[in-house]
Amino acid sequence: MPAHPTPLRFGRLLLTGAAGGLGQALRPRLKAYCDTLRLSDVADLGTAAAGEELQRAALEDAAAVHALLAGVDAVVHLGGVSTEQPWQPILQANIVGAYNLYEAARRHGVRRIVFASSNHVTGFYRQDEVISPKDPVRPDGLYGLSKAFGENLAQLYFDRHGIETVSVRIGSSFPAPKNRRMLATWMSFDDLERLVMASLTAPVVGHTVVYGMGDNTTTWWDNTSARHLGWRPQDSSEPFRPAVEAAEAVLDRNDPAVLYQGGPFVRTGPFD
Amino acid sequence: MPAHPTPLRFGRLLLTGAAGGLGQALRPRLKAYCDTLRLSDVADLGTAAAGEELQRAALEDAAAVHALLAGVDAVVHLGGVSTEQPWQPILQANIVGAYNLYEAARRHGVRRIVFASSNHVTGFYRQDEVISPKDPVRPDGLYGLSKAFGENLAQLYFDRHGIETVSVRIGSSFPAPKNRRMLATWMSFDDLERLVMASLTAPVVGHTVVYGMGDNTTTWWDNTSARHLGWRPQDSSEPFRPAVEAAEAVLDRNDPAVLYQGGPFVRTGPFD
Amino acid sequence: MPAHPTPLRFGRLLLTGAAGGLGQALRPRLKAYCDTLRLSDVADLGTAAAGEELQRAALEDAAAVHALLAGVDAVVHLGGVSTEQPWQPILQANIVGAYNLYEAARRHGVRRIVFASSNHVTGFYRQDEVISPKDPVRPDGLYGLSKAFGENLAQLYFDRHGIETVSVRIGSSFPAPKNRRMLATWMSFDDLERLVMASLTAPVVGHTVVYGMGDNTTTWWDNTSARHLGWRPQDSSEPFRPAVEAAEAVLDRNDPAVLYQGGPFVRTGPFD
Amino acid sequence: MPAHPTPLRFGRLLLTGAAGGLGQALRPRLKAYCDTLRLSDVADLGTAAAGEELQRAALEDAAAVHALLAGVDAVVHLGGVSTEQPWQPILQANIVGAYNLYEAARRHGVRRIVFASSNHVTGFYRQDEVISPKDPVRPDGLYGLSKAFGENLAQLYFDRHGIETVSVRIGSSFPAPKNRRMLATWMSFDDLERLVMASLTAPVVGHTVVYGMGDNTTTWWDNTSARHLGWRPQDSSEPFRPAVEAAEAVLDRNDPAVLYQGGPFVRTGPFD
Amino acid sequence: MPAHPTPLRFGRLLLTGAAGGLGQALRPRLKAYCDTLRLSDVADLGTAAAGEELQRAALEDAAAVHALLAGVDAVVHLGGVSTEQPWQPILQANIVGAYNLYEAARRHGVRRIVFASSNHVTGFYRQDEVISPKDPVRPDGLYGLSKAFGENLAQLYFDRHGIETVSVRIGSSFPAPKNRRMLATWMSFDDLERLVMASLTAPVVGHTVVYGMGDNTTTWWDNTSARHLGWRPQDSSEPFRPAVEAAEAVLDRNDPAVLYQGGPFVRTGPFD
Amino acid sequence: MPAHPTPLRFGRLLLTGAAGGLGQALRPRLKAYCDTLRLSDVADLGTAAAGEELQRAALEDAAAVHALLAGVDAVVHLGGVSTEQPWQPILQANIVGAYNLYEAARRHGVRRIVFASSNHVTGFYRQDEVISPKDPVRPDGLYGLSKAFGENLAQLYFDRHGIETVSVRIGSSFPAPKNRRMLATWMSFDDLERLVMASLTAPVVGHTVVYGMGDNTTTWWDNTSARHLGWRPQDSSEPFRPAVEAAEAVLDRNDPAVLYQGGPFVRTGPFD
Fold it and tell me: Could you say which protein family the record assigns here (chains A, B, C, D, E, F) (predicted)?
């Protein structure tokens, strides 16, 4: 077998989806861990800072994605649709796009990918269930379905081609939790950064699935099986609880958005 | 389905068993979360403070219990026998009484109950076993048996009637741990209050079983499956360890009260 | 510890509920395994055949039950309410009655009991779930709740007093399956007899829970954990399938009686 | 909720992929269970027999698929690519095609689908592992990946829209096992027919995953969780063992096609 | 990696412990599957039949064991102490001897071993527990302890050196079951032969642990995890039940030999 | 049964392997918990401090070990080989030696032993797996194999003779972690001392297996099943991470010493 080195610092790191919410948060943070940070998105990325490379690409454009992966040591793949949308954009960006990315990684010899999966992969579990990354998936919409596809693709590329992935089922990563559901799902940008870097630098990850959440008191997810990553969240949603509860004092358990972990995703979407 | 709202603050909260040890501890604490705190017991409850209603009732008295539930938003059910006793009082207060309470809750449309169950539901596990709320019950006496009945009743009223319950298998809630067994089972009144309120206000609980214990270093119980409640104990028995150990320096493992989690309950009781 | 002998044949065997459907089926069958078969019920038992003793008793009558257990080597306890009924008869016959029986067994030194529990202890699992006797109970009514009480009582009397019990969660034991639900739940009288005798004579049973069902092609229950009993059902519901399906050609999954394992029990009963 | 009736016999049944190997096997067999059997494929279907409707359609053609589902009571979905192939045909037929099928089912009110999934969904487990339908997927190629997508889609349409699916992870269904791997994976056409019909007519299936295999002595898959379907395979690969072993007397465990359950799929495919 | 071929028929097969009870039973049977059957024991092996080689060796004699393995394709290792004995003979034959055998196998490139382990590796489980090969070991004496050592050695030589082993935890293999315990543990010589040959010829076994028992109605062991071996027992202890039960009509559960799966082993042995 | 008292402080405590690395660390620490600390090793132990007894003994010398145990209340057994070595020293010190120790403990009525097992008992699990003490062992060499033997011996002496043991699968106990693997495996001497004392004084331990590791952020082991010991590690490897990572910036996942939990042990040793 060829060598499969995992460094702590990277020559060139690729961040896809760099113009999105999490992409903007990670852009300045990831720069510290690499010589060159290649940034990509379908949207405008502004101007390149020192050490940055901007390379616009639609994920469904195989040639563009192959060009994107050239010379890259590792990938943080945030790109694609990140909300519930109609089938076509999800198919193109999240299914065709994920395939393009892994094929390009394989051809260019990239060995490690952090894949932004989503808690919506298991959004149809109830809010009174505590689940683990080993439980069967229950996507809550087309978006969650496409993320489950991405995780399975990552498993295949590990079993078949030895490319390692950490699939991070991101909860809700914002400056602060916005509602009571996020008391369970919230993860700070600092915890996100630590999780991404642990995923990139842990010596062995195979294909690991982990929920991206803070050190929250309310928890639906048990990450025990991913403790080898060397990551523990440090920020908690608890300080935000009084304000969040005050703004949403009464919830109705019969509302599917309250009953299921996926929240409003379980009842929104392209289904008419 | 009718709406099933869960508020953070209650119009009228019912506390049964309000004259007992835990009842006295919770009485002033629960007042902060409701407009009116209805208190009940078979024993004398003193005089009503502002915002309190006193309503004496024996739990085996169906009519009295039905009156008790009228106009109530949620219940903290500490009432009934809380020690190992002969069959008749346990039958009346804990079995007939629990049935009366749930039937009254159903008729009056009460949607959420915190049920004071007990670690004695699983008292015949050994002290070198770590168990979870999903493991089969092993009651250590008639008291534990009656609490297992109450939990199953709660499950039935959830599956059949949608009434949600958190069954709290209380360890030992006292101002301080009194002996070495309580190093594992102890829970402070502050942690009890936080657990009761989390159980009343968590958006979705279905029927959740949780062990009521502190953040103790010695632990027999794994509450992972109940982390959705949004409760983490904050007080530990550890600071009390030196004093407790000094007073009970030698234990004999062949004593059933040492060997089993139920402690002395496993060998006391009405069996002659 | 005193000797705890388990014979293959019994001096005196007690059959409670002997006037009921299963009691009538077992009455002539059990006679072959004992010198004396004591029969009891609240209903009329006819006249005693050779080797039979008739002893009428209400299970809630402690004194009568104690008299019933005198001189008995082992018990097949079918007695009590076996359908969904109001609380009072279930409380008296199945809860108070079960307690009386076990207390009497303890005082008279009886060492082995076969307890007729019911599949309604877990009737609120869905018909597309396969469960085991170790899964948490989900009773579908007061009847199932009382049977769960009986099982927990049996566990207590084993852990505390060494009395062994096999709790048989009987499905549907009739001459033939009557409807499509019984394709899963049906057990022939021959299989019932074999299960009862295996339960009485297996050298070690502790407290074993087993589902009483035939060798049916449709199955909701996995009895792997009870294979030490030395029982395998031999009769199948499959030959009855064509007739049963013809008579009930269309089922509606949205009917709770179709959706849940408990069948019609999940929507009948004393709740108005 | 609207009624959700499951009949034993169907007005109009749709069989997709009817021109393929399994489609040809099932075509005459399914006719017995419906008034009209609608057959579809991209390939030629010959002429319609009595009670047959032929409707050619490419699965990636949404309009054609919607037309296909009109007036249909239930679907046996064998259509799509069934071998390891390049990404484009798999994407079109198995991913876009599966989406089109479920969307059409939803719009036309179809309530039950049998989905021909594949053992290649878990082909990267070793041949010395016995797995169950609840274990995490490990697809062995793009084909297995696309079938995992189909299963997750089925789960979503059940959780969200109440459409029930049995996903049958077909092993190897041929007149006879062709090689030693098929001693584990073989399923006769008779067993396939019985499994399809059990899946169509079982009263409640939700989304059930089951491995389609015979009553083989060599087994990698434990179907315990699907025993509610009312299906037991009756044919075994064992009588074919002598001939099969004689033709393939020596296997090399270091060959991935021998080591992994997926057999040759784990090393063939579009990856160059 | 070097090729790792598994044939169906062997050039030279080694049978150790060939003079013991099971050795004598297998000696004529194994001859059919190899050109040369090398037989070894510390005891006299009589004269060599056609195709047999006799090679006397004490397992603790490393040089003799290395000579034994020369030119061998696979091993059926029955050799060593097979009853509870003092430490020295068990240490020499079963611990040192097993190490010698595996080291010799490694040096001579032998790729597959069937190791006669024992149910006494788990003899301290109770007779009312059904266990699997994945459960923690609980040896019932020095003999069982030495067999657990052999299994762990086999695991090591697989993980480290790729030598595959099937560890068969033999129950009781005799012409007929001799007592009631053997109703659970008995395995016929025919089933033993089939199990040994399945273990030698299954394409992939890694290190598989399987209980060697018949198709008995009374069962303590669940072999689901070993079904990939392609072995199902065909003979049952059940026809022997009447005679066996008649000869041992009453058992005392308080006797450790009745209570535990290991039977008399749990109370015999060198401990004074 | 004889009394089985567990004190908090000991008359005479035996520490074997007292001249080794951990022995030297524990020697001054254990003195505080006993009147007399008996120290033993094959190597020189220097001169006895106040309250110390020095008793040189080779563990394979049964008579010497029996003398060692005389008058001892409890044992901390660090003695034996603690690195990968050839078979003979491991056989003598770790297998024969462990047997001698337990036999001597049995004869002298010693009731509690802390056994220094090793993470190398499970060294062939991958570094991306999180395992528990209940998972099957996978030793990474002869050393790990001998420690698995010791654990099974401890289980036997508990089940058969009631001697309690805590088997501590020590990770890496040094003043500081020396390399990146030790970020997961490191345990401070303070945490080791606390773990040893918790193991000696917990009221009931039976045979408990626990991993000896710090409160590290990177973790491969889940000690939930041992929380009854009353031990939580307090020191973390995390402060050492920057220095350790700087010194070992790139790891190659294809190196078995990186891939498996056992680290370099999986490829060193006496196998040529």
Answer: Belongs to the NAD(P)-dependent epimerase/dehydratase family.
pLDDT of residue B1: 60
Q: Which residues of C touch B95 (CB under 8 A)?
A: 91, 95, 149
Angle between helices A97-108 and A142-161 (to 10 degrees): 20
SS3 E53: strand
Q: Assess if residue B92 is contained within a domain.
A: yes
Query: Which residues touch D6 (CB under 8 Å, ≥6 apart)?
Result: C250, C251, C252, C253, D111, D112, D201, D202, D203
Q: By 3-state DSSP, what share of chain B in percent is helix, strand and coil, each rounded to 5? A: 40, 20, 40
DSSP string, E85-112: --HHHHIIIIIIHHHHHHHHHHHHT--E
3-class secondary-structure state, position C148:
helix
- Interface check for B5 against chain A (CB to CB < 8 A): the answer is yes
Which positions 73-112 of F are in contact with B (Cβ < 8 Å)? none
**Contact check, Cβ <8 Å, E8/D249:** yes
A7 with F222: Cβ contact below 8 A: no
Those of residues 162-221 in F touching chain A at CB distance below 8 A are 180, 183-184, 217-220
pLDDT digits (tens, 9 = 90+) for B166-203: 999 999 999 999 999 999 999 999 999 999 999 999 99
Say how many C-beta atoms besides its own lie within 10 A of residue B243's C-beta: 11
Catalytically annotated residue among F99, F102, F125, F143:
F143
Residue C272 has pLDDT above 60, yes or no: no
Looking up tokens 């209050």, which residue turns up? B193
Band (pLDDT 50/70/90 cuts) for residue D192 is very high
Q: In chain C, which residues have their Cβ closer than 8 Å to the Cβ of B103?
A: 87
- The pLDDT of residue C269 is 73
Mean pLDDT of D201-215: 98
List the single residue in B with minimal CA-CA distance to F232: B217
pLDDT-derived band of residue E3, with 50, 70 and 90 as boundaries? Answer: confident
- F1: confidence class by pLDDT, cuts 50, 70, 90: low
* Other CB atoms within 10 Å distance of the CB of residue B63: 10
- Of the CA atoms within 13 Å of residue D51, those in its CB half-sphere come to 15
Into how many domains does chain E fold?
1
Q: Which residue has the tokens 């559960």?
A: E253
In a domain, C3, yes or no: no
CATH number where D120 lies: 3.40.50.720
* Domain assignment present for F2: no
Q: Which domain holds residue A91?
A: 10-267
Cβ(F244)–Cβ(A203) under 8 Å? no
Assembly ipTM = 0.97
Contact criterion met (CB < 8 Å) for D160 and A87: no
Look at residue C152 and tell me if it is in a domain.
yes
Q: Report the DSSP beta bridge partners of residue E170.
A: E118, E212
Q: Give A205-250 pLDDT, tens digit per residue.
A: 999 999 999 999 999 999 999 999 999 999 999 999 999 999 999 9
E143 catalytically annotated: yes
- Nearest CA to CA, how far is D239 from chain E (Å)? 13
Number of neighbouring beta carbons within 10 Å of residue C247: 10
